[in-house]
Amino acid sequence: MQFLIHYLKPHVRRMAGGMTCKFLGTIMDLLIPALLAYMLDGIVPTKNAGQIYLYGGLMVLCSILAWVGNVFANRVAAGVARDCTRQIRHDLFGKITRLTAGEMDRFTIPSLISRMTTDTYNVYRMTGMMQRIGIRAPILLVGGIIVTMTRDAALSALLVALLPFMALIVWFISRKGVPLYTEQQKNVDHLTRIVRENLTGIRIIKALSKTPDEKRRFGQINEALAASETKAASVMAVNGPTMQFLLNMGLVLVVVVGARRVHFGLTGPGNIIAFISYFTIILNAMLTITRILTMYSKALASARRIEEVLDGEEEKAPDALLPLDAAAPHIQFDHVTFSYNKKEPDVKDVSFSLQRGQRLGILGPTGAGKSTLIKLLLRLYDPDEGAIRIQGADIRSLPLETLRRMFGVVFQNDALFRGTIGDNIKLGREISLEQVDRAMADAQAAFIRDKGGLDAEVVSRGQNFSGGQQQRMLLARALAGNPDILILDDASSALDFKTEAALRAALRAGYGNATTVIIAQRISAVMQCDQILVMEDGEPKGLGTHQDLMQSCPLYREIAQLQLGGEQDE
Length: 570
Hints:
- By secondary structure, the protein is α/β, with parallel strands linked by helices.
- The chain has two domains: about 1-300, ABC transporter type 1, transmembrane domain (ABC transporter transmembrane region fold, Up-down Bundle); about 330-565, P-loop containing nucleotide triphosphate hydrolases (Rossmann fold), CATH 3.40.50.300.
- It contains 19 helices and twelve strands.
- The strands form three sheets. It has a six-stranded mixed β-sheet, sandwiched between helices. It has a four-stranded antiparallel β-sheet with strand order 2-1-4-5, covered by helices on one side. A two-stranded antiparallel sheet has the order 7-8.
- Helix 5 runs antiparallel to helix 6, helix 5 (about 110-150) runs antiparallel to helix 10 (about 270-310) and helix 14 (about 435-440) crosses helix 16.
- The protein is elongated.
- The two termini are about 70 Å apart.
């Protein structure tokens, strides 16, 4: 909860004003029973109509002031909660974009979505509630107890006797509630993950008639979430009825003891009426506090989850760009080893170097570590051993923005965003229309004009375009920035051979100065590269030209024979 104080500090004056109005309005509520008691015991017996009207008018005035104060305070509280939560969401989203890839893997995407939505909403509700009834209820409780003790100490002793039991119940419930709500939010994360996977893969689920299985899988996590919600609610549900039972029993005792005191002339009936009113106020205040406790327990669990993300490890890089060595290799991997789980290496002892304008093809079976090399080059992860250099400088010494502006990238599972085709190609960069037109032509994306041009709509993930059309738009996005380093991770898998050949020719003709790394399953896509790196089980099995590898690398020769047919000439 410490982080929340930071977000509330800019609103201290507004909160102080709202709380002052809330305090004054609550005091007005506490005055009304006292005025009623005085009128019944001190004025009604005198039959002074003027005084009765006067005090009746004062009661009406107190009611109006209480209403005005509470309405104004509630509006301020809602505004503070809104502004505070808006800033939390803004900073949380910014933090998520700066998290290291390892931290993203640790939190998982569904959990981050849940923290951005459900958890921030819980904090919003708690922030507003604490300013509204979180101020009013304690004032009514404490003020009611103080007023009753000044009016009749004997009757007040009945209330004081109940307080230790109430405090014990509050302590027990709060101690049990927070862990239960934390577990509930974890199940919300799992539910979000299941829903996200189903919506993303809805086509394949329908195509393979897997809907019953997915409904069963959803049902399991839904039942687990319902069970955790029931468990948390069952514990918290003990609070309200128990408090109400204790206070109602106290109220019965007040009536019984009060009646005897009136009978013996120790107090007046107006005082008993006022005392019962105050006891009712105290009862409602305690019930309100139990509601606050439930909301606080849920919000505390959510706040801890938000704070965990805000404290997460960010990508780190220097701010200044050191001089680069133009004579050094443009890209160099120097005995690079990396593991995702830090147990078994996913890539091991990879070394190669590329001069500016050269092309590297990376080939190998699924799971060989090909895409991992690209993630390391982009510094989404840092190598555990070895170094990656660009023009002689370790990429860890380069500012991240400078490093990544060097690249044009098409990932294996890349994404198009909702908007227009033009928005997706430019992607917020300062790119001229001429650059966009050239990139579309080089990416063999002439179909864009038939679809309505750059203003044509793209739905989420580009589902209104075919796989080949999506890939060509992604290629146009990568080429539009005229990158120094071009990364194509299985970027032509959905293209026919004729289109792929035209794409390769366009890349050779128009982007000869760009150092290109091509990951492909087709050997035809990489056989013309200056170097080909063959990977298997995370280890390099061969490095050289097509002719060299046909002689020296059995794995490459086997792939070539399977894809190209027959024995390959050297």
